[in-house]
Queue: 3 jobs
Job 1
Amino acid sequence: MPQGDIELVGLVKRFNDVVAVNGIDVNVAPGEFFTMLGPSGCGKTTTLRLIAGFERPDEGKILLDGVDMTRTPPHKRRVNTVFQSYALFPHKSVADNVGFGLRYHSVTKAEAKRRVDEAMALVRLEDYGQRRPAQLSGGQQQRVALARALVLEPPVLLLDEPLGALDARLRLDLQVELKRIQEQLGITFIYVTHDQDEALTMSDRVAVMRGGNIEQLGEPRELYEAPSTAFVANFLGASNLVPVNIGAADGDGAQLGLGSFVLRAERCPLSSGADAVAMIRPENVRLEPQGSGGENRVPGMVEEVVYLGFHQEVRVRLANGTPIKVDVPNDDEQVEYEQGDAVCVHLPPRHLRVLAADAAVAPAAAAAEQVPA
Amino acid sequence: MSSRWIWRALAIPGLVWLAVFFVVAFYAIISVGLGNVTTLYEPVPHWNPLDWNVGYIWQAITNVVPGGDTWDTFLRTIIYVVVAVILSLAIGYPVAWYAARHAGRWRGLILVLLVLPFWISYLMRMFAWTNLLAEHGYATRLLHTLSIDTLFQKIGLLDGSDWLGGQHIAVIMALVYGYVPYLILPLFAALDRIDQRHIEAARDLGASPAGAFWRVVVPLSKTGTLAGIVLIALPMFGDYYTPDLISGSPKTAMLGNAINGYVQGGPDKSLGAALTLLLSAFLLIFMVYYLRVIRADQREAAGA
Amino acid sequence: MKRRPSFLAITTWVYIVWSLLPVLLAIRFAFNSGRSRTSLQGWSLRWFWEDPTLSVFHDPTLQSALVHSLELAAIVMLIATPLGTALALGMRRWRGRGSGTANIMLLLPLVTPELVFAVGMFLLFTSAFGFIGLGTTAQAIGQVTFTLSWVVLIVRGRLATIGRDVEEAAADLGAPPLHVVGRVLLPLLVPAMAAGLLVSFALSIDDFVVSQYLASGADTTTVPMRIYSQARGGPTPALNALATIMLVVSLLALVLAYFVFKALTRGEQKEQRDTAFRQLAMEV
């Protein structure tokens, strides 16, 4: 009984001079919801296509349940794909679309019909069998594509940004659906997206990719709370990236120089003297009245306040010039901040993560403008 | 991957066909033109490049240079083509521009009407003019009523009163009539592709409609225009049936007529082949240019 | 911008009239009841079949030209369409060495002047391929050769609209390449193949230079050749009638192509189909 265990070993794929996938090693456990997340061009889609068999790797191996399928053509691999463009067959009815692959599974006509009906029920499209794809909405087409793949009971399902073409509300609904179906069937899902919300919500594990490599791989919470690079920090959720100099070590942590100010970080993996950025999430920054004392407190001035409904984003410029975004919940007790207010910015040591400076990831000023979905 | 064989298997028959009947056909021209003749002046093709005999090529070259037998025809052909292309542009450009930009709700209909000539046999369209320009034909009568025939006679564009009897002007206008539809469509495509915003930006910056046209539209449509020109000039050089139908006189013979005469008409097929080779070489420059333009266009469209 | 367009509009409509009126008149003359080819003379069908000796129906030279043209066109369309479709399909997947050359070989017939092409074929069939010789076979081969490129263009355009995804989806679901072609690509290509059939039919009917060069005598004369040889000789309107019949047939082919294409792509997204058809028309 196929488990759905996927192993990628040293996968490399080049297109002319461009290296799309630069040596990927991953082990996806059976029944896992595994997501590859990253900006366009990071290699996530190429990796997916390599697993599906639409591209052949230049180096490396792909194993399904321990069997090397690197040289196997796509129609012989026991993985199925859900495409971003749905790729439904326009000349066939919905039912014929869903049943397309059953022809290669030696099932009787009755059995095929039963399985098609089951798959359609699973995606809640029971009465749509005789329609044509062109008559369906985007969300419905996507569900047909899903049913078409699931009816074959593959151990692994590959999904290439399946919700990309849908509007925000529909996307949220379908995210829940997908997660429900995956848990119900216990199939391994390998999911590709550039939307960090999707990745965080649905996945068991996420691989953040960049330039053909996996930058960090882990559970959503781990990636969010303990990003290992500035890129990951910036990609997942809003972050403040403050350029600092690393000073003397302090147990596991270190002293950080921020202009004429000294901050303490609880943990610092980099060595003294290095150029680094200190990352802190906007919701972890505390604003205190001007002149407050204590460690890790820097004076600053409010530049702008953006009202976001149940919270507000206060943009503060620190005394040394670095801009900081602070996320402040709008409850009754909160102080109303206004442009020009002088405040004291508290950066608690346990929330400061020290990461290697990355020229490609512009600090602070380019902190991801994540518009709440 | 063995499953790849199917694609190759599908493509092979077509490619073999083209290789055999197109490429080899062209090679036949080379072999005959660079070949020899039997005592009965039947051509003996020299397939082996080592056997090539430049005699006929040389003769063809001496024919087409000033002073040679075919020089007049060659020169005349060039003049006809140049004038016809200019006139075609003068007519085709405004029409293409109108269809692309200003047609409004008439656009669909106009496009159908512009494409229609493609589906009417070229011969039929020329034939139609033989009806109209005949002695009592409607066009002849109209031109006479408007005194255009006397005007043309005065300025030397019409020799005598028979429009269908060896008149340069008739042949040129027939070429224009025949080929301008082939110019309008690529022009239309090129003009249609121009983003309206470029024009709006120019107007925004103070250009008049005419200024915007000359300084924005014309340069942007350059590749399409050049491609269109090549598209009609090339076939014109090989045209022999237009002068034959509209004029029937050696006075207006074009290069195509000369080649036609040698190959189909008389005992000098080898010379005809050699002349064809010269013509092809002459046109090759334009052909290569055309292919380059298309490739660049495709690449640009793909990258955009 | 009120003044400008009307100058352009007038030019355009004048052009359209100038472009089409001569042909309309030529057609009208075919219905003359008298012998004139230059003036209107009543209405009659005599030149089509009523006149016992001179009408298209009764004049053997005209009739044989008509029959031969139709025969040739049928042969050409039945060869060029499958050949061209297969070629378009095969070339789709072709990367690497040779694909550039193959592409050029495909585009060359479109830009080669007909005369050059015809001379080449003529010399070929009178020398190396002398065993085939001139005649209907040669004419058919010649016409297929230049029609092929058009069919490939049409099918290619349609393949581009179909896109790569459905092909990959079919393979992903277990279909081996033969099934991908048979169950997915060919059914989706039917509109393009139908268009290809009709386009090659029309191109063959209207062809002159190639068929003239490769003809072997009176019974390999096509309608355009007949028109060419008789146009200046003071013919009767029967020639106009012949030309009219040919015109109607090839226009019918086009109109049929349009409706067939529309009917067969009925189930698809409207904008996809319209783009595909527009591309098709523009290519031609």
Job 2
Amino acid sequence: MRDVAVIGIGMTKFGELWEASYRNLFVEAARAAMLDAGVDRLDSMYIGCMSGGLFVGQEHTGSLMADYLGVAPIPATRVESACASGGAAIRSAYLEVASGMSEIVLAGGVEKMTDVDGGMATYALATAADAEYEGFHGATFPGLYAMIAHAHMAKYGTTSEMLASVAVKNHDNGSLNPYAQFPAKITIDAVLNSTMVADPLHILDCSPVTDGAAAVILAPVELAKQLGVPAIVIRGIGMATDTIALHGRKEITHLNAVEVATQKALAMANLTIGDIDFCEVHDCFTIAELCVLEAMGVYAPGKAGPATLAGETRRDGKFPVNSSGGLKSKGHPVGATGVAQVIELVKQLRGTAENDRQLKNVKRGLAQNMGGTGGSSVVTILEA
Amino acid sequence: MAQTLTARVWREQPQRYRMIANRCTRSGDIYFPPRLVTPGNLNAEFEEIQLSGKGKVLTYTVIRVAPTPYSDLAPYALAVIETVEGARLTAQVSDIPVEQVKIGMEVEFEFRRLFEDNEASVIYYGYKAVPV
């Protein structure tokens, strides 16, 4: 397998984008990524999307997007792994370039979530859980993560303040990201006094419903040199699965797919977690960021909450997490999220993060994308 | 759950109405709902069992923003419950103020009406947990 680099990035603003359609969201991001890379053709593309069917009544996304991006007849495939669809699309594109089958491959992600009402959006997202044995009984995504949070609190003494500190930190980062849906800074009191969605998670513990798209262009490292664009190299990529239902886990607070995907990506890169300078993780809910950092081995089980409250994961902390604002502040168009995480790594590694968001002296970054309650996860390691 | 045809409903009835599980005859592991294979054993043999309907709450939440089929019921308590046989499942905890649901609480399952699909005129039934 040959070395593969990210040579172009593009994304839409994230938010409630009433003027933008499913297809135009994707085309805007894909066009920006192609212009950024300086390429005028693609050999193939993969599009992460969780549920075109339930959100906009549209399947056959590969054909639609190839048509409207003007790149038909190239092969184009929709990739679905719930909220990890974007990460899974990058993995598919990586394999196609690394194998030598194609030269220039686009990996994108898109979700148009605001064409349905809140109840339908909640229902559509809940299909990432076990539809017959969780969703059928009234489980929602905030509800499932809330059950992880209660178990984490009972086992390790994690507090609502610790959870809130994740949201406060991520909004502080997002306030510097021009693409963020909710760039407002918030306080711990604001989180604790916000409406309860599923005890113990308040609405400010939850990532929002978002429209948006993101795209990256992958190519062999040699081609990046020929094009004269910065090559941010994919050093490792790993994917893993776990039980679809939360209740199927031996340990409710442990995200095994995250642990396994991280170990696979690190082994491929011949690195340890200590070699990583910063990361973007899947903070769909505040508790998720803590459980992910513990599953990745950044912190021992139960230690991520106190560390976050102490500021260790802020931009100026010893291990910056979610400098983009994360899903919490930047927004979470589910299919696009995994790609947008990789875009933040590329910006940081190129040294082009907007405003005061740029991290100092970073060489390697890790993106962790997650489906459902951890039923799947994709981890990607990039190096400048 | 809109426009679900009846086969999808009656297919799950043994599990939902009578809590039928299966047990791997070699490992003794219990699966709810019943499975066709076990991890690492494509030729697993099973015996059917009926769960006793008694268990305890491993973790819980109170759903205050509900999905469409349950929007009229919120707030309701939802829990991961381990049965005395060792099976784990997700169910609502009913017949108790939601604030009183706690980790470690003992419950038993009852056959209850879950929700109604007005479009298809179907009423869905299944198990809910209630305090012992």
Job 3
Amino acid sequence: MFNEIATSLSMSFSPEVLIVLFIGVVFGCIIGALPGLGTCVAIVVCLPFTLQLEPISAIALLMGVYGSSIYGGSISAVLINTPGTPQSAATGMDGYPMAKKGEAPQALGWVTTASIVGGLLSCIALMVAAPQLAQLSLKYGGPLEITGLICMGLACISSLSEGNQIKGILMGLGGLLLATIGNDPVSGEMRFLFGTENLAGGISLMPVVIGIFPLAEVFVRIHELRAQKTATPVRCKKIIFPKLSAWKGRITNLFRSSFIGIGLGILPGVGATASTFVSYTTAKKLSPRGDRFGKGEPDGLIAAEASNNAITGGALIPTLALGIPGEPATALMLASMTLHGIVPGVRLMADNPTVVYSCFILLIIANILLIPASYIVVRLFGKIINFPPPVLLGLIVICSLVGVYIPSGVFFDVPVALVIGLVAFGMRLYDFPITPLLIGYVLGPQLEFNMSQAAIYKGNMSLVHYIGSSPLAVVLFAIAAMFLLMPIFKSFLQTTKK
Amino acid sequence: MQHFFNRNRVIALCFMVVGGAFLFSALTFEPGFQDDSLVMSPMAYPTWLIYAWLFMSLIYFITAKKPAKQVDLSQSKKAIVVVTLLIGTYFFLFPILGLPLSSFIFLIAFFMYEGMRDLKVIIPIALLIAFLFWFIFEALLKISMPRGILALFG
């Protein structure tokens, strides 16, 4: 273990990797700060660049972007009340009132400090918990258990659709179904070609990701621009960090919120946005200044920021150790690593421990680099955010085209991305959560492959006996069934009550 | 009747139609070869998914109420169609004209449609962005992109 850590340290602290990491941190902050773009777009835009880099530099770039983009989203949440990322929505609830009072630099100081502490605590949790989880997963990591685990992760996605879980389940199933188009992973048979040979290889990941995030965002922004939804800018050119004495009575909130973020981040499907609001409402209930929440209270900023940045490390635990992405950003990280020949999953910790430890170390450095990056980004942000919307949207469209075309070099992917973008825009307009679609799409092939393997292992045994032979699988399937059926019964009960 | 077929129920019906198309394709599927070692046929897993999708669509249809908020597309409908056409044309022109030229044309058209009329402003911005993308991806990173008619100029 120490040899691997030493190797990872020497790899992570090479000048080239550190430069790439810093570029990633600054870039992640900028993209995160631009409303509507967020972590996924930042990762997607970086993907073509990573293909030209060594695997360790590519991971550094991705970790930098991943670890900083949520923080970046909070900058626009504080300054223009427009969260750059959904995870930063709670930050704006107290940050913007502070900014309107002329305390934007102070608000950004609280945001930056809480983000860094939350992020560092989550990295420590990642280092402590990931190896144990990986060992457990190796012990119980047969195809049946993996199928159960994937089912549990998929069943969790219903919670991503607050208010109407059925929509979440439908989107998750849509993602799974989309992943079945093309080659069968076991026999190689072609399915669902609908008369076009172009679908023989299936629908690639990039058109799906680019369609549902940046391209759908372009249509949403066009729609909003026509509906005259604008925000008033607040001027801010620097950050003022809080003095040590100002932390008196707020430390408990900082640690509690960080641990909520880490805990909920580990659970697949809960997502950063939900976790941030859980942390915010908990802090509102427990803080002595709870009545001032929503009016510019730093405790609210600490709760939201510590939690949403702590999720980065928490969500990486199941992603790296089990190969189960808890949110779209980690699903993208998973996919990006696959593009570099690193296969996240139960064997990653055993087969490639250097990669895992490098991820930990790079994420810790990325969090520390947020301090210099924040100075640069706040100065830049005042200017970039004032770009006319057409210029910003035009840039997104070109980035999307390049992002779709480069990985495969197949032109067919380009119109597919546009179609998916339009469908995703419609889904977003009618309040269908898009995240489950991506999670379903990413996990679908793994689910089918492991199910096929489990079916072979089952042999002549009855299904009940086979599942019963693994207590862990029974528990996982039971939890999955509970998560899946609960919203359906809940919805039925609500309908009958009304 | 109009209340019964509200927006959410129409969406549920659309989902059922999509599920029906997949189900038809699954039921009429003929395997290219027979492999006895396979326990699960290539269509077994997708067929379960399709039934689950149809079941959930039915649940959504049954439980769907009249939507609480109306989505007003009246002001943006035309813009969405035009922007879709612009992006579609850009994607179509990309292999014919190459990245820099197609991006330049797209940006000019997009800026003008979005209300930026001053050619002295939009031409330099479009040129700068198109050049930047060409420089980063083709000149700096040496990524092979379709060159289209630009190949004629070497």
